[in-house]
Amino acid sequence: MNPVSSFFHGVADRFRALPRWGRLVVLAVVVVLVYFLPILNPPVITTPDSDFGAVLFLCAMYALVAIGLNIVIGYAGLLDLGYIGFFAIGAYTVGVLGSAHAKVPLLLCIPAAMAVTLISGVVLGAPTLRVRGDYLAIVTLGFGEIVRLILVNADKLTNGNRGISGIPTPPSLDLFGVPHLVWDGFVARVDLDNQTRFIKFSVVDSIPYYWLALTLVFFVLFLDWRMQNSRVGRAWEATREDEDAAELMGVPTFRFKLLAFATGAAIGGLSGALFATKQQFINPDNFTILYSVLFVAMVVVGGQGNRWGVVVAAALLTYLPERFRDLSDARFLLFGLALMALAIFRPQGLMPARRNVRAKRADEETEVLEEGAAHA
Q1: Whole-angstrom Cα distance, residue 367 to residue 359?
Q2: Quick one: which of 203, 198, 171 has its CA closest to 107?
């Protein structure tokens, strides 16, 4: 096992070794720290050339995207290169219902966006999931581009290239103010003049949107954990490993692949709705096919099938270009070189699923035993 795997799995093993109350305390501390990260504004982590709260919101939103795509790629083994299509459908559903053609409240627009994207996932998956591998990837790639072209040309519905503005924001509470920390070197002080209202959604402060996105991430992670450890999750794993064998064992593979596709689409619609309400303006240029490539990279870099791995990868791939924005265009060169190095030296991702690690270790042990028997 290489040092990266040893570190992550060592931390996981130590965490599992704690008593139940100890694990709950550690989780509570980590959750509180993550929620208050934009308030604490740590000097080493903060983004000096970008709004730190807005960057953290993007990290949480793309983490939500990566969780949905991980269900499709990591659990069911379906290569989807057009996930940006579901993201766009969710965003435009909120835009059309909430601003362009109606004044539906956002709390109703978001379930509608998830329902529309789920139906679109079923409509796309029903005829296409009977093909496999590269053929499925080509079909989904075309789907993502077709959605963008429809948004450009359906002028009466989507306003074409002009886009949709005035998208509704979540209802605000505005209960009290939370002051920020200001750092002088490594010495912090409380700045009472710079406060975030709890919870007031506005254009000038991205932190409430970050809190909303992070809450949705934790909620979807819980549902993801429940699904993976259920009969559905085991059926997805069997389908991914050997679809023909799973079919022979009585698993209706097409039905479960369609379920994975629809579930991933619904989560993509949720993240698109979140993007639309934060931006309050969308147009087709926000949904190019390059974003689909970035979404797939998040799943591959994090480790296919590992929900925490894809969350970490989504945060890193969103945060690092913003953190080093002062390097101008050179940061994209370094970013590409880092991805190339990862693909060469760590093809299984930063945090591969534990079952994959165990399977690889078992294969290595089998090879050692076979070599020993051959020499004997």
Answers
A1: 12
A2: 171
- For residues 92 and 235, membership in a common domain is answered with yes
In the chain, the number of structural domains is: 2
Same domain for 228 and 278: yes
CA angle 271, 274, 278 (to 5 degrees): 145
Q: Looking at the domain assignment, is residue 153 inside a domain?
A: yes
Q: Are 123 and 18 in the same domain?
A: no
pTM over 0.90? The answer is no
On whether both 6 and 105 belong to a single domain, the answer is: no
- Its domain, for residue 3, covers 1-35
CA angle 92, 277, 227 (to 5 degrees): 80
Query: How far apart, in whole angstroms, are the C-alpha atoms of residue 325 and residue 318?
Result: 12
- Nearest alpha-carbon partner for 317 in 114, 52, 58: 58
Check whether residue 17 and residue 55 sit in a common domain.
Answer: no
Cα(293)–Cα(138) distance, integer angstroms? 13
Report H helices in the chain: 3-17, 20-35, 37-40, 52-70, 83-95, 106-128, 133-153, 155-158, 207-228, 231-241, 243-248, 253-279, 289-302, 307-323, 330-345, 354-375
- Give residue-wise pLDDT tens across range 162-190: 889 888 888 888 788 888 888 877 788 88
Q: Does some domain include residue 197?
A: yes
- Sole residue written with tokens 């294969």: 363
